Structures are given as C-alpha cells and as structure tokens.
Amino acid sequence: xxxxxxxxxxxxxxxxxxxxxxxxxxxxxxxxxxxxxxxxxxxxxxxxxxxxxxxxxxxxxxxxxxxxxxxxxxxxxxxxxxxxxxxxxxxxxxxxxxxxxxxxxxxxxxxxxxxxxxxxxxxxxxxxxxxxxxxxxxxxxxxxxxxxxxxxxxxxxxxxxxxxxxxxxxxxxxxxxxxxxxxxxxxxxxxxxxxxxxxxxxxxxxxxxxxxxxxxxxxxxxxxxxxxxxxxxxxxxxxxxxxxxxxxxxxxxxxxxxxxxxxxxxxxxxxxxxxxxxxxxxxxxxxxxxxxxxxxxxxxxxxxxxxxxxxxxxxxxxxxxxxxxxxxxxxxxxxxxxxxxxxxxxxxxxxxxxxxxxxxxxxxxxxxxxxxxxxxxxxxxxxxxxxxxxxxxxxxxxxxxxxxxxxxxxxxxxxxxxxxxxxxxxxxxxxxxxxxxxxxxxxxxxxxxxxxxxxxxxxxxxxxxxxxxxxxxxxxxxxxxxxxxxxxxxxxxxxxxxxxxxxxxxxxxxxxxxxxxxxxxxxxxxxxxxxxxxxxxxxxxxxxxxxxxxxxxxxxxxxxxxxxxxxxxxxxxxxxxxxxx
Amino acid sequence: xxxxxxxxxxxxxxxxxxxxxxxxxxxxxxxxxxxxxxxxxxxxxxxxxxxxxxxxxxxxxxxxxxxxxxxxxxxxxxxxxxxxxxxxxxxxxxxxxxxxxxxxxxxxxxxxxxxxxxxxxxxxxxxxxxxxxxxxxxxxxxxxxxxxxxxxxxxxxxxxxxxxxxxxxxxxxxxxxxxxxxxxxxxxxxxxxxxxxxxxxxxxxxxxxxxxxxxxxxxxxxxxxxxxxxxxxxxxxxxxxxxxxxxxxxxxxxxxxxxxxxxxxxxxxxxxxxxxxxxxxxxxxxxxxxxxxxxxxxxxxxxxxxxxxxxxxxxxxxxxxxxxxxxxxxxxxxxxxxxxxxxxxxxxxxxxxxxxxxxxxxxxxxxxxxxxxxxx
Lengths: 581, 376
Ligand SMILES: Nc1ncnc2c1ncn2[C@@H]1O[C@H](COP(=O)(O)OP(=O)(O)O)[C@@H](O)[C@H]1O
Ligand SMILES: [Mg+2]
What we know:
Chain A is an all-alpha fold.
C-alpha cells in the first residue's frame, strides 16, 4: 500500500479517482472503541466509586478511604475471606474429583453406555443455577427437605439428617453444579494426552503404578491445576448458592456481602465497590495463574500420531460399578432436581410427596404462571436479550479476532487482552460496575433494557473471542487473499468469505451465549427495574415471595424450553456441520 | 529368534463388525536380522507391531521370542508389555515432555526390578546417548530437541534397556528428506554394531529396500510376500507387490506353454510373445500379467547382434522426458505403450523406430488373481 500511494498522488495522475477513505478503517476503529469502552470504562468507574463516600440529597460525595477501612478493619472481613476461600476451594475440589472421575471413566474405560453418559453429563449446563439450588433446598432443607422427611419417617425420629443451609451444603450444591465443567475440561485433557507416552513407559518395563505416578499424573498435572483454578474462580464468583443457602444462616462470602451492601438501607455502594475490588483481585490472581500454567503446559504438546483413541481399560465386572456411579451422578444432578421441581409444580400449595398430596395434583400452578403479570414480559425480555447479545457478541468478536490475528496493526495483542478483561469480572461485580458507570454518566440508559444488553454483551465477549479465535486460526489466510486478488473489497471479503467460513464456530458460540444469557442472574439482579425483568429474575422474585409451586412450574417450562432449544441447535449443527466444542 | 504364527488382531468398532486389522500373519526373524513390515497406510503394519509389543491383544495366534512363548491364544499366555523387555520407538517418538534428555533415557533403567546403582545407570545412559550423539544434550529439556534429535532420543531410550527385540514404527516418517537419508544410515549402523534383532515398520519402499535383510509386504491385513529386498524387487509374486515397490510395466497376456529350448514359459502379449520368469505354477491358456521394470527395458538404435536374441522386438518412440541422469522413453509396440528408462546417451528422436529387448529373467509372469486362486 505504502509503495503505491505516491504514484496515485502524483500530479499527472489527477484524473484517477482520489484514494478514498477505506471503510475498513472506520469499521475497525469503531469496533476497537466499542470493545475498549465496554471492557474498561465501567471498571474505571468501579474503582473510582470505591474511593467515594455515598452521595445523599444533602451531602455531596467526597474522596475517601473509608470504604476500604470499613471493609478491612472489621473482624468480620477475616471471616468473610475465610468463608469465601473455603467455599470456593471446597466447591472446586468436589467438582474436580467428580469431573475427573467421570472423565476418566468415559475416556479410558469400557464402562457401558458411555456416549449416553456424555450427553447426560452436559445437561446440567443448561439448567439455570437458581433452579438447581431451589430444587436442592426442596430436597435437603432441614424442615421441608424430602431427604430428611423420608429418613425421619423411615427411622421414626425427628433428627435432621442433612442440612443444606451450611457450608457443606453450599459446597455440595455448587460442586455438583460445576462438576460438568470439570468433566468437560478433564475430558479434553485426557483426549489431548498422547497415549503413546504411557505406552512407551509400559514398553520400558514400568508397572501400572509407576506409569500412573511418573507419567500420567505428571502430564495431567497442568490440566488439573488449571481446571482447579478455573473452578475456584467460578465458585468464588457464584451468587445463587451463597445468596440462597448462605445468607439465611449468616454464612457470608464476598458475592453475598456485595449484594447485602447494595441492598442495605441506606445502600452502601462504596463499600460494595471495595468488596468488589477485593474479589476482583482474587479472580485476577486465579486467572493469571491459570493462564501461566496453561501457557507452560503448551510446551508439553507433542507431535501426535493418528487420532485413534487409546485402548480402553477392560474393567471386567467393575464396569457395572462405574456404570452405577454414572447413574448415581445423573440422579443427583439431573433426575432428582427435575423430579422435585415437577412434583412441586403439580401442587396447589407446596407439600411434600405423599399419598394425600398425590390426590391434589393439578395444573393450577402452570395456569397461574402463564397469567402472572411479569412472566410474559420477562420471557420476551430474555428472548430479545439472549438473541440480541449472542448475535452482537459473535459479530463484534469476529472482527476483533480478525484484527488480532490477521492485521499487523501495532498493539493488536492489547486489543485481545482488553476484550478478555470481562473474564475476571464476577457477574455481580460487572453488574455493579455498569450500574455505577451509567448512573454517573447518565444518558438515560439506566433503568432500561439497554443497560442489561450492555452487561450481557460485555460479560460474554470473552466467550465470543474464544469461539472465534479457535475457528479463525484454522482458516487459511490464502482464502481471504485470493478473494482480495479477485478484486473484492475488504468488507465484501469479510462478508462473503470470512463469515461464511467461520459459520460453524459462530453458530456454536452463538448457541452457547444464548444459553448462558437465559441463565444469567448475577448481573441482572443489580440492573433490572420494573418492566425489564428477565426469567431468572422472575424466579428470584418468586422465591423471595415464597411462591414455590409457581416457581417450580415456571422452572419446569424453562428447562423444557432450553432442552428443546439445545436439541434443535444440535440437530441444526449436525446438518450444517457445526463442530462439537 | 522371533516367530509369529497365525496372528489375528481385531479392533472392536462402535457399529458393524470388528475391524480385522491383522489376519493370519506368520513370519520368522533370525537373530540379529533387520526385518521390515512394508505396506500402504492402513494395511495393518502398526497393528502387527503393537501385537508383538503386547500393546494390542491378538484374538488368536502365537508369538515366541528366543524360545519363550510371550503370547499364545491356545495356551492362554499373555506376557504384559512391561515384562517383555522389548525396546520400541513410536511414530510420534513419545518423548516425555516433563523430563530432561537424561531422565528420558534413564527411565527404563530406573523402573527395572533389579535395581542398578546411580553411577551404573549414569554410565549406561551416557553410553547410549553417546552412541546416538546426544551426550552433550543430556541435561537439556527433552522438548527443546529438534525432530531428528527427539527421534534419536527415542532410539536411545529403547536401546538403553538392552532389549531382546527392537521395534520401530515409521521412525523416520516425521523427518525432512535430508535428515531422513542420514538417519537411515545411522539406524543401519547402530543395528549392525549392536546386532539387535529389529522389526521395522514403514510405508516407504526405498527405506525398506535400503535397510532390511528381509521384507514382508503387507496388504489389507495380510502378508502377501516375504523375501530379501532384491527378490521382492525383481521377482514380485503378485501385481500388488510389483506395483507397490517401484515403477513397473504391466503387460496382460496368456500363457502358451513351456519353450523347449530355454525351459521358460512363453506368454502371448500385445507386445509380442515373451519368454518369462515365474515363481508361480502356470498352466497353458492361463491369463497372466507380465511385469517388467522400466530400467530393464533395454533400448537401442540398431538391432544388436551381440548378447541374447530372446524377447527382441521393436517399436516407435512416442514420448521422451529428459531427467538428467536418465531419459524416460515411451515406446509404442503395436498398440501397447511401454515405459523405459534409458541412459541419456540414447538420442533417438520422437517418431523414429527403436529396438527393444526384454531380458526374460526380468519379465515376471504373475497369474491373474482369480485364476491363481482357482489353481491353488
Ligand atoms: N485403535 C483402533 N481402533 C479401530 N481401528 C483401528 C485402530 N487402530 C487401527 N485401526 C484400523 O486397523 C487398520 C490397520 O491399521 P494400522 O495397523 O494402524 O495400519 P498401518 O500402520 O499399516 O498404517 C486400519 O484400517 C485402521 O483404520
Ligand atoms: Mg502405522
């Protein structure tokens, strides 16, 4: 380009059309500004807010360190910190143990019905977290929990056998809920391991135990450590479990404290921001360590031979045990919770399963839900928000990825990092940051559905980046160049060549973002206002109002819808060749 | 030394019948020899090698090494791979990325049942590392090695355990051409110096011909011919072998009968009646294919009077391609097009007549598959 320009500007070439401002620079410039705005500005406001006093009608806000002093001088902070770490570490360990065990069984053993279990293990990913927690309250709360009632009537006592409102209960529910993620991460790790590394140890004369200790474990170590950190960050960010199980009995973690500080009277946004910054530092540390480990593990990747799966271990009769474990897991995370919701949705008033209650089965709750004033609005809002944010995110990040991977623009690596910043922001912190940001700069966005749209796009931008990067690195550069050589403009090349070739990745990412948008609660809870509720908020409100049967009916319908959506998406994906990701 | 008898190995498949990857594989390797399994990709070479290693469990057959039965389906014997003491080099090298070069090579000694002292291990490891010219890299991380060095490390690791049998699965296929040529000599040298019985798997016929004492050509899970490289090349037993190893002309014909003067079979072909060599039982009127390598098609401008007068004919030069150290001629004999590789000094122009001689010993008659099976 540089070499050509002087020629076109030469005086004797005046009759040539002047070099037009290339629209590509406008598009790229626009995209870069949007990404930078979304990722950085709210974060800046959050930090700013944490150094300000609350503003009231009479007293203007001033600079202060009081928020941090309040957050750190209180002896409760130590408890808070230790609770959070206990909860997150416990959850991560539980999820990792379950996930690794299942992944090993499904990848390396001859457990029967493996393909079925793979599908079954991922289903929990589409169940909104709040529904999962509610169903476990119905199962294991000390007063109304079915497990307790069954055991009590069995042994004729009134002992409380299981209490979900405890640290152990919180870890149990969140650990089960995150186990599928651990399962997916570890399955990928097992698949990436070249089986000949273990086989060559076997040929060297090593025993099974020596191979496991010296080779398998050492090679899997980076994946285990990275998965642990990912799960730790996820659980320290989780909001549903601490809010529903911890708050009622006073077990506070960072997320529930942030929520409490905002919802106390008068609301103390500065303190919430100070907590949020602390949480942010922890998640940043976790993600940094995780990326370091993953980066180092990169050097472990070796040339692999053919893609045949390694020979699976013949478990003999033990395979019925492993199949049993799979079934037990499915019962715990899919079947029991769903049945409990289904049962309670068929009642007029919440009641424990019994012969008497069986007679009262009715569909009243479903009718109530459908007539419920905010349900229609919420479903419509969720629909619009999920489709809108998924589409926006995938297109936006497609361009960002293209800039990062295909251009030589200086500082493009920075763009990549900026677009990934939201990864370290817990949903609640993101909600808080966006709230503070748009409250202060105005513009009339606060209180509309747009603020939630902004929150969703920001929050899920890193997922879009990941899906797009994976598919774009596989896309040969020459495909674009040959289109350009045929005379197509940049915009045309992008629209006619790049996007269609990225379609499988775009579609897979789009589906994923639609699902996580529908499930989203922790950002929405700080940003919604009457009229802009989404489905998870309606469930939250129903829970607060004690409308358990209506909540269950709504939950059952929601899960069924999401399930149909995923099946449909898979079917479409198969027809149009979307790769499994 | 190594005897493999009637080996069958299958892979279960999700749907449909099991994949029969190795079928009725039988061969024998004398001590100290270099034996190659050669065949196109997917023909079952790796499967056969892994069955010998014990990494796959064959459904039937028997494997005996030095009189020790390590596998027998009849007697229900299966010695696990970690007790067989075979060295193996994998196609992907399988270098452990979390260890140094030294640790990789020392691993087989460290996991041995009979413990060695640290210094004994050190000495043995340094000796093999020296043999593969990696001694100066001993403390390097294994992943910092180049492809060729990793390949040599994998070899060192297999050698350090002083194996009874060395198993190599396409060890050169991931190297670039120049390095491959050099490593080929290295391998041959090390194998000869140590006198190791070696089973080598490759799909590269050049490698197989250059390295082996004996070659087994495989196709679709079965061994189709076993023999020394020269025999395999000069006297292929089937069309598949003739075609897979080198370039060749196939001339379809019909067997006439044994020529009384030479004792050879006479075959009627579009390129005239030819006296041929054959290793198969022929019968008159049998359909056969005559295979002759381009370099065995002798061309000359004049009808020679010297030498043998057998299988003489003539044709027209149809095409020629100059390739530097030789010239490829396409010669039209009647309707038949014959490829010949000649010395560049031959300059017969296109369209001119040329004399052709096909040495009977190099014309190999192969019965057509169907008629051969009927005869057997
Ligand atoms: N682990 C496996 N599972 C199923 N089929 C396999 C497996 N390994 C090899 N095969 C099949 O067995 C046949 C022989 O494979 P292989 O021995 O690897 O061939 P080669 O090494 O000669 O290329 C091929 O058809 C291949 O697809
Ligand atoms: Mg192979």
